[in-house]
Amino acid sequence: MDYTKKPLPPIVAKLGTGLLGVGLVLVVLSFVTDTHRAFFDYLWMYMFLVSIGVGSLALVALEYLVGATWSTPFRRISEFLAALIPLLVILVIPLIFGMHDLFHWTHEETLLNDPLLQAKSAYLNVPFFLIRTAIILLIWVVFYFLFIRNSLKQDDTRDPLLTKQSIKFSAAFAILFMFTITFIAIDWMMSLEYHWFSTMFGVYYFAGTMVAAFAAGTFCSVQLNENGYLVSNIKDNNYYSFATLLFGFNVFWAYIGFSQYMLIWYADIPEETFWIMMRMKGSWSYFSIGLIFVHFVIPFLILLPRSSKVKPKLLTVISIWLLFAHAYDLYWIIMPSYFTEGFVFGWSELGFLMFAFGLIITVFRMRAAKSNLVPVGDPKLEAGLNFHLN
Amino acid sequence: MLKNILNKIKEFDTAEDKEVRSSKLYGKAALYNTPNEITEAAAVVAGKGYKKFDIYTPYPLHGMDTAMGLPPPKIGYVSFIMGITGTILALVMMIWMSSIDYPNIIGGKPFFGLPGAIPITFESTVLLCGIATVLGLLILFSKMPKLNSPLNDTDFMKHVTSDKFGLVIETGDEMYIEDEVLNLFSKTNAYEVQDIYFRESNLTKKTPLFDKKFTMAIIITGLMTAGVAYVTLNYVLYETVPFNWMWQQGRIDAQSKSDFFPNQSGMRPPVEGTVARGFVPYEYQGMPDSVVKLLSNPVPVTVKSLERGQDRFNIYCSPCHGYTGDGDGRLRDQFPKPPSLHNEKVKNWPDGNIFHVMTNGQNVMPSYSEQVSKEDRWAIVNYIRALQRAKDASEEDLEKAK
Question: What DSSP assignment string belongs to A223-264?
Fold first, then answer.
């Protein structure tokens, strides 16, 4: 193994800072001009960051849990993407101030006049909501630091026992992750329309999260590896694994999304169908049909042949595509509650998207500057570098 | 007894071993210990230009096809074409069943709804694709009609199906020279080399596609599976909780008693003011004849409406009124005889009055508004008018009809 640490190219810093700067200006401007709209955009951006950050941490846990070796050379990349998690704690603060704008159920007069909400209010009330969010964020932050501390310590000590310890953390986190991601999806996105309920919604968001995390991981890994920032002899077999899992989780997302839609369509109950009807109103209907193609049909057909799963350039394009597809998906979930008449995408939304990408790149760059890009002390690394599918 | 059966199976299993091998060599077989060794060996053998050789491994090895220099496999096309066939078949089937052959409104949905059809389409696609892939693999790679390979029942086959990776070069290959092959094996670190000889049966006779023992085994297995499934489903599970929940439900049947409700009636009356789908309430319900003089007949007199009126009249009116309206229906001795429809009173009634009687009932005649739709009642009125006209027909009318 011949890893020597190289600093990331200056383009990464420029791109990250540029996007972050322009994004921040637009974010501030949109808060000044239209606060109500800006809070919805902000929630959209926040959930996208949750997907990338927490999803990446779940990938790290998944690798430990199943004992995968192919992904060990790339594990740091997911760990650095998960460095967004501590920031999520700070970024949630504006959302708490925007709760009155975002959630109708927080309004006193709604509670008084709505028997359905009164029935739900044992769960859906502001103090309990905040407690849940705090607990969820705490779990994420604690596990992020547990994983990253063990992983970084191993670079120096090369102690295999640290891997064993991380496997135990992963077992705990796997369960907690499923609960937290379900609750965060229900609380922050499903309660936008508090009359609506879907038992599949948590799984739906989870599936999207995994697609986004895999897409972000694939993009960074392929780019860094192709340009020689990782260890040199990583080959097709590792790419193939990335692409199959990306493909698999994307099909899983489509499966869950369709199942949710079909059950609502079949039962035809007004308190469920209205959520779909909101997404069929005016120009939203084109947006909804577009989601099927952007998130599923096109990536499915491109990733289906075996040959396309080992082409680095194609993987780069398709992983960026799927990242945007996940943003598209979240937009479809959140924004119809604000733009009730039809689809709108303006400079304000673009600014939030730029801010999100700028933040991800900058956090990744700053985290990567401090540590090795490859977990050099991991006992599974050698097996990962010589990974063959046979 | 079980021991006997097991012994028989063992005998059956090892019977082939006793078959004499001929002295003709089929090929040289080499065994390797690791997947990496076999992949390298395959690449070397393919690189030398051998054509008739094959690799046998206990599990699939990725990248083996490129190492062996094989062209891209054709099996994908079989799977794809059959998968698409499954998709189209399922969609055509459901469109045909649900919107052409037996259209039924279910839950207020369109006859054919794509979301509801997707699961079945998916199942059908996967089913056809899977079956076609397995059959295609058997035919393309295992050369299906040929059942008897010289490799069967050899020590080599036992190893490559459990713990070793095997390579066989056939003597039929154009480049086959024994020393070179052995040299190749030793260079690629073969763990063991074996000679595989043809069986007598490989050389002398063709193996039938349906071997007697094989066919019997298939039939017995099929009968046993079907029998066990039949008994399980029809006798064991049929009466067992929870499998009987589909047909033994704790529900109240129509017209039956229920202690749940105070009046002990199992059926609930509809909410007051409920109107059936397609039913238009009659505005003069229960009022005297005089108020309906102004009701006008919306159904025009056409051949079609008269035929419809005749049809309904014969079904609903004729039992009492008779087919001609004279009041001599089939129930004439069991039921009060109704007055003739040809008397002056009825003849002089406006259409609306006849309609009102049908809708509202009169004396012992009940309302027919629930059996006969509004349009049909007007069609009957037209038909009664035709009957009245026919009763007074003259000679000239007959001439005209001719």
Answer: HHHHTTSS-TT--HHHHHHHHHHHHHHHHHHHHHHHHHHHHH
Question: Contacts of residue A266 in chain B, CB cutoff 8 Å?
Answer: 107, 115-116
Residue B338, phi-psi category: left (phi > 0), alpha (psi -120 to 50), beta (remainder): beta
**pLDDT per position as a tens digit, B108-127:** 788 898 888 999 999 999 99
3 state SS of A203: helix
Do the Cβ atoms of B109 and A268 come within 8 Å?
Answer: yes
Helices (runs of H) and strands (runs of E) counted in chain B: 15, 4
Q: Is the peptide bond before A375 cis (omega within 30 degrees of 0)?
A: no
User: Above 0.95 for ipTM, yes or no?
Assistant: no
How far apart are alpha carbons A22 and A36 in whole angstroms?
21
Residues of chain A found within 8 Å of residue B36, distances taken between Cβ atoms? 388, 390
User: Which chain B residues are closer than 8 Å to A261 by Cβ?
Assistant: 115
CB count, 10 Å around CB of A32? 9
Instruction: Give pLDDT tens digits for A158-183.
Output: 888 999 999 999 999 999 999 999 99
CA contacts within 13 A on the Cβ side of A207 = 22
Asked if the Cβ–Cβ distance from B115 to A261 is below 8 Å, we say yes
- DSSP code of B100? I
Tell me if B63 and A266 make a contact (CB, 8 A cut-off): no
Q: What mean pLDDT comes out for the span A89-96? A: 94
Cα within 13 Å of Cα(B245), Cβ side: 3
Size of chain B, expressed as the number of residues it contains:
402
Q: In whole angstroms, what is the distance from residue B335 CA to residue A134 CA?
A: 83
d(CA B287, CA B290): 8
* Residues of chain B under the 50 pLDDT cut: none
For A196, the 3-state DSSP assignment is coil
Nearest beta carbon to residue A390 from set B62, B116, B119: B62
Length of chain A: 390
Instruction: Indicate the pTM of the whole model.
Output: 0.74
Mind telling me how many Å the CA of B114 is from chain A's nearest CA?
9
- What are the chain A neighbours of B107 within 8 Å (beta carbons)? 266, 268
Q: Is A266 on the interface with B (CB under 8 A)?
A: yes
Cβ contacts (< 8 Å) between A237 and chain B: which residues? Answer: 62
Candidate from B35, B39, B115 with C-beta closest to A265:
B115
Predicted confidence at residue A25, as pLDDT, reads 95
Distance between CA atoms of residues B34 and B154, nearest Å: 21
Cβ of residue A262 closer than 8 Å to a chain B Cβ: yes
Chain B residue with minimal CA distance to A390? B61
Quick check: A265 contacting B, CB < 8 Å? Answer: yes
Whether chain A has a CB inside 8 Å of the CB on B250: the answer is no
Q: What is the DSSP string of A41-90?
A: HHHHHHHHHHHHHHHHHHHHHHHHHHT-STTGGGHHHHHHHTTHHHHHHH
B71 touches chain A (CB under 8 A): no
- Listing DSSP states for A307-323 in one string gives GGGG-HHHHHHHHHHHH
Residues of chain B contacting residue A240, judged by C-beta atoms under 8 Å apart: 62
Span B337-375, pLDDT tens digits = 888 888 888 888 888 888 888 888 888 888 888 888 888
